[in-house]
Amino acid sequence: MESDYGVPRDLSHLQKMRSIYQPELPPCLQGTPVGVEFGDATTVADSISQSFPHTSGQRLAHFLAKVPGAQIISHLPEMRVGLVFCGRQSPGGHNVVWGLHEALKFHNPKSTLLGFLGGSEGLFAQKTLEITDNILSTYKNQGGYDLLGRTKDQIRTKEQVNAAMTACNALKLDGLVIIGGVTSNTDAAQLAEAFAEAKCSTKVVGVPVTLNGDLKNQFVEANVGFDTICKVNSQLISNVCTDALSAEKYYYFIRLMGRKASHVALECALQSHPNMVIIAEEVAASKLTIFDLTKQICDAVQARAEADKYHGVILLPEGLIVSIPEVYALLQEIHSLLQHGVSVDKISTQLSPWASALFEFLPTFITKQLLLNPESDYSAQLSQIETEKLLAQLVEVEMNKRQKEGSYKGKKFNAICHFSGYQARGSLPSKFDCDYAYVLGHVCYHILSAGLNGYMATVTNLKNPCNQWHCGAAPITAMLSIKQEGRALTVGVHPAIVDLRGKVYESVRKNSQKMLLDDIYRNPGPLQFDGPGADSRAVSLCVEDLDYMGRIKELNEYLEKVRSIVKPGCHQDVVKAALSAMSSVTNILSVMASNGSA
Amino acid sequence: MESDYGVPRDLSHLQKMRSIYQPELPPCLQGTPVGVEFGDATTVADSISQSFPHTSGQRLAHFLAKVPGAQIISHLPEMRVGLVFCGRQSPGGHNVVWGLHEALKFHNPKSTLLGFLGGSEGLFAQKTLEITDNILSTYKNQGGYDLLGRTKDQIRTKEQVNAAMTACNALKLDGLVIIGGVTSNTDAAQLAEAFAEAKCSTKVVGVPVTLNGDLKNQFVEANVGFDTICKVNSQLISNVCTDALSAEKYYYFIRLMGRKASHVALECALQSHPNMVIIAEEVAASKLTIFDLTKQICDAVQARAEADKYHGVILLPEGLIVSIPEVYALLQEIHSLLQHGVSVDKISTQLSPWASALFEFLPTFITKQLLLNPESDYSAQLSQIETEKLLAQLVEVEMNKRQKEGSYKGKKFNAICHFSGYQARGSLPSKFDCDYAYVLGHVCYHILSAGLNGYMATVTNLKNPCNQWHCGAAPITAMLSIKQEGRALTVGVHPAIVDLRGKVYESVRKNSQKMLLDDIYRNPGPLQFDGPGADSRAVSLCVEDLDYMGRIKELNEYLEKVRSIVKPGCHQDVVKAALSAMSSVTNILSVMASNGSA
């Protein structure tokens, strides 16, 4: 089976041209040696630090090109590193491999990079492929994970952790790089702790690669793959908008991949201006039922019909279905029954009366999909549940009803449904994702070279050109949180949800009325690699004020300035003013911190 | 309703850059005046010439830049021209409007171009928008038909023809340009004849614009929109191939828009190398039943499983469903019953026993779709029939059966289905389609300027760069043929089907075994407007040896050469050799012509 991995491939003309594209390194990673500067220690909740005694509370790391005062890494020993793809393939993943391989070989040509074949299963089974320049040549800047493949995505149970440790020991790995999203990086944190506990010398590094764009926090601005996915999807959505406007007879319901959070849907709405975008987080926050949602859409259809418009484009995230409170409750019951071994055809008879009523109401195609076994992270198989069809059908029924009753006098409502996921996921990665992933690959090397364990590679200031990017590493433990899921408390890197008070959401909301009625469709066009548009960034990346680490640095500069002004010998009034101002600031911050905002 | 047409739009950065892109004119259309040279008279079947006494047998026209001997158009009178979009929107359509408008204004600034709003309905109702530079500015090189819109696509009944004539007379039009595919150009031919018969002074011109790519014949090499559609679809198919290879657990069944003929599916297969492509023409020629097809796919799945491969990508044209003999027969019965006013819920009871058996066998979702009313050209609503789901379902059932019987020992078969049409149809047009459509727009002007009626604008030698393109016009009557459809004989521009003896089909066939088993996927990448790939042509355009008119010209050069060699005074042996050779050639050609090859 593994014989097919890493084989050279016939590339199209454009693929060939892409394969010779060389991303830049930001100045901080140029030359050798690269310095590492340690920042503040990170804080975590007590219960987390108890579970992660070896890897929590570690300091942030920044990589800098030979800065005076920084600890210079002058020894460049030979290294053996393993790498594994986990979870949904995300465009750009191959470039992490390339960047890491290049950095390893650059700092010591004898170093080795082993790719595990077929994801975590390959890790457990110690199936490896030694990465070479030759093997990489037809995979540089290319999409998919087919260089190494992936299967199951879990490294969680005691058995799995032990199998991973055995593999790392047997292969004498100095480092294990895990490429994936929230689930895989949670696994990486646990693996790092287990390795440290067992005094295994392999250091574990995580890399934020997920098309969902939901691995976001103070340290991580963006995920590899999100930019490409949003650009490809936005192109398709815009094409459909143009189509809608030309034919003027259909409503298109487009469901977007992206798991529970609605980042992909939100970004695509910013790029393409559809008539409506349903944000799962908003539905959950407003506790909208499926009937509320149907009514909202019907009212929109009716408002447009009054302006003689019988077409439209409505985006919805695949996570919508589990954000509708009553459907979520139904799914929880189903999954719990499945876990208790109840067979699929018996489940409907064992639901609570309330869940049963909903189950009976829903069309058969949806109930079949709701009955599917949950994913490895215990969540529903979102890609398989056709929420777009459910909504389109409910809207059609309601519009027909309104027409019969005479409250709607327009033309018949016609819907066409799409699920946009697989068509985008295997795309050639955008320039941004190529560059970002390549740099992250280099950062992985420097993390391992500094001997750090349980860190995630980070690159910040991403909205600016690559020569202004900052490279660093943050302990994954600092990204862990505790969350109630169903009845269990889980510790993990939890998906960031769309911030309903944030700038990104706001910029869609404030245009929503115009988008709904005025057809202000916008087509970002197909992904470009040259010329106009090639260097564009995701809108949400540019809208949000992301540079958390930069702001901490700026704050430190202010504190230093105060210190340098208020020195013995300065005027009495200056000291007084400083005292009063600083006392007020610390009071405010103490209150905020104890309220949980900090 | 029309107030929304032609409004300026907010364009994305890439759209703006595209809107200022200026296509080239081939040398033959540069400068003024452009000359027109008339070639041979065209031949048509007797029955056609009887129905088209005024417009059949007209001569071919070629446009040339001031060539000595050509008839020079020196008077450049003011002109009033109307233009209407008919049929499915096709990327590039807007550029025909632009090219025509530019040529009109260039030759006489007082000339007027009126766009009919909302397709043929707008033509009948005389709803127009006067095209201006200002209006065009945000529609140049952009996709869709939203500048003018389109509704119903028919100009066929006596009433419709009369309404069109009334409109042309009332608006004092010198020309009416009809933009569309086979059906619309058939209508154009009939309109031209009716106008000539009624001594209406408006000349009718057709333009080959259809994403289906099925308006092909000796005079027409390619259709506007086909290039874009195939490139966008191939990108998506390739992305799915990469996805399949990365996840290794799904078979993707992708149905492609393109009406009855399989040109789009074939071209996409050439660009992306999926595991399998089903060509409707092949199914029809081999009289494959739906069970044969299912078995073929199952055998392929089984062969791949033996190589431990559980993923794959299978393309099928939307026209496949009507190419399966027994389904076609069933559809004919259904449509005939519908025409006789039988209500949908009664139809299943009135089918012949044989059709009824098939109807009962098929899954409900498909029978519902088969019961839809036919399109305006009496064909089935292909975009609404989910053949991909039908096949996936039948294959799944058969694979499960084989597994139970023990003849298949591999993993469970999993399918994911896609219909790729609407996502591609509204795309920004490729450079090729922008250029081609723009030049066709200019050609329309020259056809009208030469006073020709019932002609289609043609551009040939398209596989070469624009500066080698030849521009001309061919009487649409020369493209008409008679065909049996069901029980009726229809005269029309019939869709060209895939030539099973042609080079394009052959180049897919000879690779089919490698494609099936070796995963030689290829990703042409997203549509590029700059840099590598931007100037690429459809593979089928380059493979086929298309230059019919060029070859007739070359032949005439040979004949001229023979005449110039064999003149009184030349040697006796030369005359003898010439006589013997020419007698043999004419004998062969006479036999071929009487056999119907000519």
From TrEMBL, chains A, B:
<keyword id="KW-0418">Kinase</keyword>
<comment type="function">
    <text>Regulatory subunit of pyrophosphate--fructose 6-phosphate 1-phosphotransferase.</text>
</comment>
<keyword id="KW-0479">Metal-binding</keyword>
<feature type="domain" description="Phosphofructokinase">
    <location>
        <begin position="80"/>
        <end position="343"/>
    </location>
</feature>
<keyword id="KW-0808">Transferase</keyword>
<dbReference type="GO" id="GO:0003872">
    <property type="term" value="F:6-phosphofructokinase activity"/>
</dbReference>
<comment type="subunit">
    <text>Tetramer of two alpha (regulatory) and two beta (catalytic) chains.</text>
</comment>
<comment type="similarity">
    <text>Belongs to the phosphofructokinase type A (PFKA) family. PPi-dependent PFK group II subfamily. Clade 'Long' sub-subfamily.</text>
</comment>
<dbReference type="GO" id="GO:0015979">
    <property type="term" value="P:photosynthesis"/>
</dbReference>
<dbReference type="GO" id="GO:0047334">
    <property type="term" value="F:diphosphate-fructose-6-phosphate 1-phosphotransferase activity"/>
</dbReference>
<dbReference type="InterPro" id="IPR011183">
    <property type="entry name" value="PfpB_PPi_PFK"/>
</dbReference>
<keyword id="KW-0324">Glycolysis</keyword>
<dbReference type="GO" id="GO:0005829">
    <property type="term" value="C:cytosol"/>
</dbReference>
<keyword id="KW-0963">Cytoplasm</keyword>
<dbReference type="GO" id="GO:0046872">
    <property type="term" value="F:metal ion binding"/>
</dbReference>
<keyword id="KW-0460">Magnesium</keyword>
<dbReference type="InterPro" id="IPR000023">
    <property type="entry name" value="Phosphofructokinase_dom"/>
</dbReference>
<comment type="pathway">
    <text>Carbohydrate degradation; glycolysis; D-glyceraldehyde 3-phosphate and glycerone phosphate from D-glucose: step 3/4.</text>
</comment>
<dbReference type="GO" id="GO:0005524">
    <property type="term" value="F:ATP binding"/>
</dbReference>
<dbReference type="GO" id="GO:0009749">
    <property type="term" value="P:response to glucose"/>
</dbReference>
<dbReference type="InterPro" id="IPR035966">
    <property type="entry name" value="PKF_sf"/>
</dbReference>
<dbReference type="Pfam" id="PF00365">
    <property type="entry name" value="PFK"/>
</dbReference>
<keyword id="KW-0021">Allosteric enzyme</keyword>
<protein>
    <recommendedName>
        <fullName>Pyrophosphate--fructose 6-phosphate 1-phosphotransferase subunit alpha</fullName>
    </recommendedName>
</protein>
